[in-house]
Structure formats: structure tokens, C-alpha cells
Amino acid sequence: MKAIVEAANYCSERKIRKLVIESDSLLMVNIINRSWKVPWELQEYYDELQQALVEIAVTVQHIFREGNKMVDYMAI
């Protein structure tokens, strides 16, 4: 969740108005899409994310873990 918040803040600071978030965490996708209740442990991050996304049109998509192979490779 922290990485998503940081990315949203980055986009907000640079006046990016459209954002697509892809996550392999179905929990994060459903929380951001407001399908599931936010766990108390994540409430602070969620509130910060909502502030960052005020002026951004965001699309949140679930991807399978296999879709992250390139990112995993880049992180090494």
C-alpha cells in the first residue's frame, strides 16, 4: 500500500491527471475500489491515498503475479 501511496503522491505533484494502477494484490485492488472495508492497519495509508487521488482519474486493475516478472527482474 505504501508504494501505491508514494506513486499517487508523485503523480499528484507532477499534475498527472490519469493514472492506471496495476496490483497483484486483490486485497489492495478491492480496498482502493471501495469494494472491501479498509482494515484498521491500512486506514492511515488509505486516507493519504485518497488525498493524493483527489484530482486524478484512477483506474485500478488486478493482475496475476506472473504479470510482475519484468518488475521483479528490474528490482534485482
Automatic annotation (TrEMBL):
Residues 1-75 form the RNase H type-1 domain. InterPro entries: RNase_H-like, RNase_H-like_dom_plant, RNaseH-like_sf, RNaseH_domain, RNaseH_sf. It holds the Pfam family RVT_3. SUPFAM superfamilies: Ribonuclease H-like (SSF53098). It comes from the Eukaryota. This is RNase H type-1 domain-containing protein. It comes from Solanum tuberosum (Potato).
